[in-house]
Amino acid sequence: GNDRKTSGSYYTPSKLVDLVLDTALDPVLDHAEKSSEPEAALLAVTVCDPAIGSGHFMVAAARRIATRLAMIRTGEVDPTPTMLNDAMHDVIARCIYGVDINPMAADLAKVSLWLEAMAPGKPLSFLDHHIKVGNSLLGTTPALLAAGIPDAAYTALTGDDRAVVRAWKKLNQEQRSGQTSLLDEPGVDVSNAAQVTATQEVADRVVAAGALADIAWASQRYGKLQASAELVNARNAADGWCAAFLTVKAPDAPPITHDTVEAVARGTADHQTTTAVVAVAARHRLFHWHLEFPEIFQVPSSEPVNSPTGWRGGFSAVLGNPPWETLQMTEKEFFATRAPEIADAANAAARRRLIQLLEETNPELHGDYLLESRRVSAEVHLIKDSDRFPLTARGKINTYSVFAEHFRTTLANHGRSGVITPTGLATDATTAPFFSDSIRAQRLAAFYDFENESKIFTDVHHSFRFAVSSITGGEPIKDVRLSFLSRQVADAVGRRFKLAAHEIEMLNPNTGTLPIFRSRRDADITINCYRRHPVLIRDGYRDGNPWGLTFKQGLFNMASDSSLFRTAHDLGAEGAEFDGWAWARGDQRWLPLYEAKMLSHWNHRFSTYAGATQAQLNMGTLPRLTTGELDNPETEARADAWVPESDVQTALSSVANDGWLLGWRNITRTNNFRTFIPCALPATAVGHSFPIFSGHSHNLILLHAVMSSLVFDYVARQKLSGTNMVYFVVNQLACPTPKSMMQIPGWLQRPFSAFVHERALELTYTSDRIEPYTLRAPDGLVGGAPFRWLPERRAQISAELDAGFMHSYGVSRADADYILDSFDVMRRSEESDLGEFRTKRLVLAEFDAMTRAGDSGIPYKSPLDPPPGHGPRHEATP
């Protein structure tokens, strides 16, 4: 990775490049060809890669434009090589732009384009005005520059003097408001009109170049333009605005404030200040798009135009595969070539100790390390706090998300972007504001998601997911083209389907992120579920939380709270006695710490540490309790650690509970046996990987049943993109409301809630420890002996609940069959163990029985005898 980054030699497979061009460039070219002058329209197309690397995307884009241009010029479907060469020469001279932070990469891109543009008798094109070196993400815009340096620029970073930071901030506020300005005409002229004229003159000469002398003239003229006082001052002003965020704020440093920017814009700043600004710009390779490409981003007067950026215009297409890197100091990468022994240290703590030793053993390298750390933190500060990237610069910033916003920002209204990023662009909470804004503005044109199982990217992990997305510059798109979980590039086109923007909003109304559908049928079933029931919690609505839920990330953090945890060996050595669940010594008690892997559907005794082998512990699995053990109400799963009861009670005080808790496994996958795994358990210590619901017990029993159903699980699978069932995903799952569950279905002729309660009780109340679960039951049940653990009976009860909830969600018989078949791991497991897919048979049988009951008016009756919730508790028959 470091070698490739150093050389700028990132590579994107050609088939993936073609998919980006199909998705984002072809619609632009189709529009140009419909013009009354298609040749001129094609040559007016401008395409940019802001992280151009060796030029792979831009070469492919140039070929595609040139092919269409040659076809129009000749009127032939298969133009001659000579006509294609001539067209390619013209396209590269006019249409192709790129930027890279790496000078070597920019040079590679120029060479790639020159090789493609060679035409007999014509000089190689001048490309310096189109292919440039700089950091595409670090710079300002006319709108930001005109507004002055914001207070956010003055935040103390490592190496800053806090008193100096406060003083500069106060001075900047006074100068920005005009209280202490020494200038007669405050304000910075952000117009680039003069640069537009001069740059266009160079571009026209390059396009008309017939001899090497024309290229030499263009190069010389462009060099003079770049060195002109007017452009140097404009660039220094923009650099100064950024330097307020980036520069070290020390007593001996010249203040970078509002007046500084105005002074350098006029060329009247003192030498020390100008030198400091230039040094900051060089160190961070600042790049201001309206100054580097004025013909693309035009600011016609001293006042920026009324747009978020302050410019008008933009590229016809912005394409590429920008870096996917977290913006933070990477010590291993920094020392990889400078001090490999530090990079290869056993762990982070050892690496930090070696770095500290450098202060004495190699102070020069230590100083370089501190400078690099400061550079990274300053650049994060500029990106995060400058308001240039208001939708993606949040949380732990990854460059791919900021680049995606930049792609969209630099588009012309009729343009399209095509970008390759991790799938998280469409599904993660930190990128949700950007993606939801694109959807709500109907600017999302396409999103093609891939699993890397077939190693499309050879150096990326096989389980990693990435996507090609296309967003318009402003043109509304009625239907979004989507495909998910493709493993080959060709699959994306073959499996794609359309969703309307309003359908996407309905599915994720809080975040506007994308669901993950394998097919249009999955989309249709899920959308119908959402039409029947709202999301669990709708942000910003007075009645948006009908269950009255709050959440807590478990009760104890398995790492930071570990000092509270005691092992059986510890407690036994201290004379405590074990009762099969908890430990006690005198008045002191230690309650078990439940971990997520100990819990599962309708079973808080799913797995136990009792008898666990080291091999099982190494694999993260635990032994399961036997049917006989589960049928004994006195048997409980054994924990690995216990927590003082006083600490548990303190933790429980923040969670509304009646002696029991309801939560779900945070770590999961869509291809597991089940995906959403809730469980009720006794009120005790719980690890952080099992988040807790808090609410009224009567409602929580209903919610427990809903979330244990297969149809709820199916919906959850359409919304999960990673391995964490996080809050924002859970909140946006379609869920019946308590009020809707009180209604009487036509097939039942009594409240659905009563049907659900009695079954949830029998499935849950199978041990003495979970007795509190029964105390708020609607039938007045208090205590009583636990229910028998009878596997066949429990399978039937679960099937009745699953069938009932499928009717509640309005699922058709055909869709019920499809949903059940989607649980492939469950099917294969049951076919192996039971010789059939028993769950499917039972659920569909009860689904059909409920349908017949609704059609006939004769209430549904369970085939169990006695029915759930009736008869002696230990005597319930299979």
Summarize the structure in short:
The protein is an alpha/beta fold. The chain has 37 helices and 20 strands.
Task: Provide key terms for this protein.
878 residues, alpha/beta, nine-stranded mixed beta sheet, disordered C terminus
SSE blueprint:
Layout: H1 2-7, H2 14-33, H3 38-43, E1 47-49, H4 56-74, H5 81-94, E2 96-100, H6 103-117, E3 131-133, H7 142-147, H8 162-176, H9 193-208, H10 212-227, H11 229-246, H12 258-266, H13 271-284, H14 289-292, E4 297-298, E5 312-313, E6 315-320, H15 331-338, H16 340-343, H17 348-361, H18 363-385, H19 399-409, E7 411-422, H20 424-427, H21 432-440, E8 444-451, E9 465-472, E10 479-486, H22 489-494, E11 497-500, H23 501-507, H24 520-532, E12 550-552, H25 568-573, E13 577-578, E14 583-585, E15 588-594, H26 614-619, H27 627-630, E16 642-644, H28 645-652, E17 660-664, E18 678-682, E19 685-686, E20 692-694, H29 697-708, H30 710-717, H31 727-730, H32 738-741, H33 752-764, H34 791-808, H35 813-821, H36 824-834, H37 838-856
Parallel strand pairs: 1-2, 1-6, 2-3, 6-7, 8-10, 15-19
Antiparallel strand pairs: 4-5, 7-9, 8-9, 10-11, 12-20, 13-14, 14-15, 15-16, 17-18, 17-20
Helix pairs in contact: 2-4, 4-5, 4-6, 5-6, 9-10, 11-12, 11-13, 17-18, 29-33, 33-34, 34-37, 35-37
